[in-house]
Amino acid sequence: MKYKVTFLPDNASVDVDANTNLFKASKAAGVYVLSSCGGKGNCGKCKVIVTKGSVESGKSRSFLTREEVERGYILACLSKVTGDLVVEIPPESRMQAKHKIATGAKTEEIIRLMASAGGCLESRIKRVYLELIPPTLDDSISDYERVRRALDQKGLDASHLHMNYLVLKKLAHTLREKDWKVTVSLFSVGEVLEIMDIFPGDAALTRYGAAVDIGTTTVVVYLVDMTNGNILGTASSYNSQVKCGDDVITRIVYATEKNGLQELQDLAVGNVSAMLRELAQKNNVSAGMIDYIVVAGNTTMMHLFYGINPQYIREEPYIPTATFFPLIRGKHVGFRIDPQAVVYSMPNVASYVGGDITAGVLVSQIHKQDAVSLFIDIGTNGEIVLGNKDWLVTAACSAGPAFEGSGIKFGMRAMEGAIEEVEIDPKTFEVNYRVIGDVKPIGICGSGMIDTLAEMYLTGVIDQKGKIREEIGSKRIRKGESGLEYVLAWRVESAINKEIVITEVDLDNLIRAKAAIYAGFATLLAQMEMRFADVDKVFIAGGFGRYIDVERAITIGLLPDLAVEKFVFLGNTSIMGAYYALLCDRLRHEAEEIAKKMTYLELSVSRNFMDEYLSALFLPHTNLEAFPTVKRELEERKQSV
Amino acid sequence: MKYKVTFLPDNASVDVDANTNLFKASKAAGVYVLSSCGGKGNCGKCKVIVTKGSVESGKSRSFLTREEVERGYILACLSKVTGDLVVEIPPESRMQAKHKIATGAKTEEIIRLMASAGGCLESRIKRVYLELIPPTLDDSISDYERVRRALDQKGLDASHLHMNYLVLKKLAHTLREKDWKVTVSLFSVGEVLEIMDIFPGDAALTRYGAAVDIGTTTVVVYLVDMTNGNILGTASSYNSQVKCGDDVITRIVYATEKNGLQELQDLAVGNVSAMLRELAQKNNVSAGMIDYIVVAGNTTMMHLFYGINPQYIREEPYIPTATFFPLIRGKHVGFRIDPQAVVYSMPNVASYVGGDITAGVLVSQIHKQDAVSLFIDIGTNGEIVLGNKDWLVTAACSAGPAFEGSGIKFGMRAMEGAIEEVEIDPKTFEVNYRVIGDVKPIGICGSGMIDTLAEMYLTGVIDQKGKIREEIGSKRIRKGESGLEYVLAWRVESAINKEIVITEVDLDNLIRAKAAIYAGFATLLAQMEMRFADVDKVFIAGGFGRYIDVERAITIGLLPDLAVEKFVFLGNTSIMGAYYALLCDRLRHEAEEIAKKMTYLELSVSRNFMDEYLSALFLPHTNLEAFPTVKRELEERKQSV
Questions:
Q1: Which of A179, A250, B476, B585 would be a feasible disulfide site paired with B124, CB 3.0-4.6 Å?
Q2: Residue A406: per-residue pLDDT
Q3: Cβ distance of A136 and B317 shorter than 8 Å
Q4: B58 bridge partner residues
């Protein structure tokens, strides 16, 4: 028995078998429904409204308010299709089209930064134009040997020449197509010089590459002219894997289920392919001209990208299949746009510190300084690196994606409709907020959460533990279904016909997340017997990092209380580092040295980390002396009241 | 409209469209019908008899005798199916099941020969058993690095370690399958150590290889235990490409037609695969255990095997795509039995001197001798090498496959039913012959042709030019449809209800073939300013070479008139050389040095060759002084008459 399910507002329909899970039906219809847990009934994000027909729904009370239940909300992943349906996806469950994804600095700025890091346009993938001497009876060496001889004459050592099978198959024809004039794309591994591809005529100047950042949440692609380093185009999108789970752990679990790994690989490769194809078309880059693709991502993302089972990343002792992946051809991961392209991934350090962090360190150049710096990437995870030219230590904080909206009732990513700035009047407790896209709000994103937490704390709406102080007597404070909550936006202000609130559960989750990150810093420093005062610079990377207010982040104890000028925002260093490695073999090599040099600290088994974490479960910290600026502001505010 | 065509005696049926070519229908039915030209109507070999139903037949008179036409013979390739048919394939058009294919010497003999050539069991493909230390939190390097470390500890330089994509994908699982005990198969190219495959537990002793000889006419496969060099089994079959043409030129033409290349590749790979699968099953060799396959064949065969367009081999200046082919994986050519196996082909020298000849020289060891030797392979083509430890020259004679039956009215390969020995009574001109399999004859094979030619000449049935001397007045001499002919077997003696004759056209073709080969010898010698007397040894290789009578071959001037003890029969040196290279990397390297060292002489444009050829179009030669033994025998016979 088949039923038809239509999703609004997209008006996308799909025919499914009876009892099909409604979340799966939405995937089959090609419609996005938010989900943090990948459809396991654990996150309560996939709220939809059945407007016609009926479904068989499992228990999902704890995620739905009484009002929502009355209005017909159900969780898609806990519902089965039992008849023809029309389902509305409300705004808060949609992926919004307009969003802010950090795509790195501007071309000129990146080129300048790369040059100052010692970069040059000397990729390990080259193209060489050859004018061969046509064969005669007296000079009848094979086509292969003729190419080798021509390479030798160009001064390239071709004594260990390798030609892959596809090149060999088309060699004879290609050589004769434009009168023995050809262009070969080449790269060397050790002594072996390999011809990757061959083109008729002179194609030495039409060579392109791609830098790719596969984040847990977002994917960014640069199309690069390899002859001059120009970024011809930039594209970005959400990582379509998001529908299989918000964080790496959920994705790993998903990957171990039937066909899950293949699905996840296809989704990520599909994202990159689609963007690359579009960029190539826009820039008249024809097929076969993309020689080299450098991908950066965290270790789990790289396993999924290559279709390698990430299961053991999650199980103690947390072992990845590889940190340094061998070069492979585009076709092996499923790139159809340029199957011969060589794919390289930025070297990873450990299961929870990936190539995106190596790329970030490369861009930050902390590995070349005398002074000790801190590099932090507060993305979906939370990775940190401490070090200088002599040593580097790194750790992952397992902060979780709370600041990306996961586990936060009205949490969402930095998309249109997200509250991104919040101010609370210390006397009236009234709220001023700014929404991305200047529209009615549907939720609250990371920077908005930091602001909210900081403002609530500074104005005394919450105490040091994040508990709402009902006694201050604001009409915005009320009892919700899961305890006390604070109304940020009234129903009439919102786009979803509901109050947007922050609950005590949300506050608790945010404090846990910030505590994990701060404890990470503290543990690395303790490991090196250093103090925050010894840190010269704090480099903040990642899409999230671009939009946070340092002072507010210090207020809640997410960042250490250092002088504001010590903080440097680098933006998306993952894509920038991939770009460096794409164009400059020396910097690619440097990235490998960085990855080898980094000492990884497994925080999940560190007693010191546990202690630091417990101490950090306060605003800003158990030890207020460590946050003199915050202490001062609190005192000032007290006086002014 | 579909029609059913049934082929007898196999009773194999196929449904084909109206107007389907009958030769193609036979291929579709999986039935072999002989053909030298691949179905182009040029050879007259695909004679069949329609016993029921009717066909539309094109002109084929010149290939069919009046009697044959009366008996309902048609040429399959010139006939179209126009209704349901029953078609009989007469014995002379069948591939016989029992045949003689030279499969090389016996195992012990080959191992002894290899040892005397300096061989050892040291293949470049190795297996290493590793017991890894299981990871812990304090030792959490990646699986990849763990394998590298274990290899390093075994004393293998793994600083440039490569793992292919499939190994990487299964790495995590395989390591954990048998408690961190694994076996890796390895090979090195330059500095790079590549892990080809990985197996759970100890599989170091179950490693196998295959040596393969892909001849134009026959295919031979050895399954080899790589640990001790034992040949576990030998298999041989006709090269199924034969139905697309007898000689390399016809196959090249076939390859340039629509899908022809793919068909030819599939046929050869299919032959090898089928035999390998059977040998593996018989010997309980499980999938994945064949690591290495070494293939020898002529240059065209290698192009077809790899699916590389051989078109330019045929067009002046005769350029192959490659003489040295890179290593590729079994799956790329279509081996399903062991897709990960590394395939190596014996290095070729030029378009018409292939890896089978390099293999032959390796086995003959002429490249290590002070004295000058001649190496000849009279197979479908006719390749020769002259040289010693200081130099090697080589040439191909384009003798054509006359001695394999092509262009000879009753010519056939050395299969059951072939006349292989012939004696003619000098007084009565009566014939004594011996047939392979001791059955009634259906045709005559190479050694039978040499005998016939020699006997006819010595007994005066033919003159020096190969013309039949009608005047001797034998009832065996008669006028056939294409001139004079000599009856070898009367109708009642034969298995085909026809007289088996040798015609003046046949005689002419045989003399042209032997002249081409002899002229090749002479040209190479002249090139080096040497004479036959300077030749220390003549090594005769190839399936054909095993069965010829040296004295008779000298009589007709196919071989030079040297002392019989100078001739050494080596048998199938192509498969033996492949076996050497499979097991011993030193000998593999030696073969490459041989191929590089050989100077190729293009005879087709040599004026000297033309002169030598014209001089050799006599029995035994224009210059009888060059054949003192033959001269003496002629004189003795004259006296005894």
A1: B585
A2: 84
A3: yes
A4: none
**Residue closest to B188 by CA, chosen among A228, A191, A229, A514:** A191
The residue of chain B nearest to residue A305, with distances taken between CA atoms, is: B169
The confidence score (pLDDT) of residue A313 equals 96
Nearest Cα residue in chain B from A194: B326
**Alpha-carbon dihedral angle through residues A539, A544, A547, A550, given to the nearest 10 degrees:** -50
Alpha-carbon torsion angle B577, B582, B583, B589, nearest 10: 70
- Residue whose pair of structure tokens reads 């219809």 in the numeric block: A29
Q: Could you tell me if B440 and B417 are in contact, meaning their C-beta atoms sit under 8 angstroms apart?
A: yes
CA distance B480 to B486: 9
Interchain CB contact of A350 with B (< 8 Å): yes
Q: Tally the C-alpha atoms within 13 A of residue A448's C-alpha that lie toward its C-beta.
A: 31
Instruction: Supply A399's token pair.
Output: 């902060």
β pairing state of A373-377 and A383-387: antiparallel
pLDDT tens per residue across span B362-394: 999 999 999 999 999 987 778 999 999 999 999
The C-alpha R_g of chain A, in whole angstroms, comes to 27
**DSSP string spanning A387-449?**
E-SS-EEEEE----SGGGTTTSTTB--SBTTEEEEEEE-TTT--EEEEETTSS---EE-HHHH
d(CA B267, CA B239): 8
Q: Does the complex come out with an ipTM higher than 0.95?
A: no
CA distance B600 to A140: 9
**pLDDT reading at B404 higher than 70:** yes
Q: Which residue in A159, A160, A146 sits closest to A198, CA to CA?
A: A146
Query: Token pair for residue B378?
Result: 């009279």
Q: What is the mean pLDDT of chain B?
A: 92
Interchain CB contact of A602 with B (< 8 Å)? yes
- Which helix H or strand E contains A267, and what residues bound it? helix A260-282
In contact, A125 and A196? CB cutoff 8 Å: yes
Q: What residues of chain A lie within 8 A of the CB of B137, using their CB?
A: 316-318, 602, 605
- Indicate the residue of A190, A324, A351 with minimum beta-carbon distance to B190: A190
Judged by DSSP in three states, B521 sits in helix
Token couple for A612: 């630091």
Distance, in Å, from the CA atom of A400 to the CA atom of A440, rounded to the nearest integer, reads 28
Quickly list H helices, B15-132: 22-28, 66-70, 107-116
Q: Where are the alpha helices (DSSP H) in B131-164?
A: 143-153
- Short-list A28, A27, A31, CA closest to A11: A31
B223-258 tens-digit pLDDT: 999 999 999 999 999 899 988 988 899 999 999 999
Q: How distant is the Cα of A95 from the closest Cα of chain B, in angstroms?
A: 33
User: b/e map of B597-617 (b: 16 or more CB within 10 Å)?
Assistant: bbbbbbbeebeebeebbebbb
B311 touches chain A (CB under 8 A): yes
A180 touches chain B (CB under 8 A): no
Task: Encode pLDDT of A404-448 as tens digits.
Answer: 888 899 998 888 899 999 999 999 999 999 998 889 999 999 999
Say yes or no: A306 contacts chain B, CB-CB below 8 A.
yes
Residue B210's DSSP bridge partners are: B223, B293
Tokens of A584: 């400059």
- The arrangement of strands across the sheet holding A181-189 comes to A126-131, A181-189, A192-200, A161-163
pTM of the model: 0.87
Residue A509, pLDDT > 90, answer: yes
Q: For the ranges A495-509, B370-384, B444-458, B520-534, which has the lowest average pLDDT?
A: B370-384
Q: Before B628, cis peptide (omega within 30)? A: no
3-class SS of residue A581: helix
Cross-chain CB nearest to A191 (options B139, B191, B317)? B191
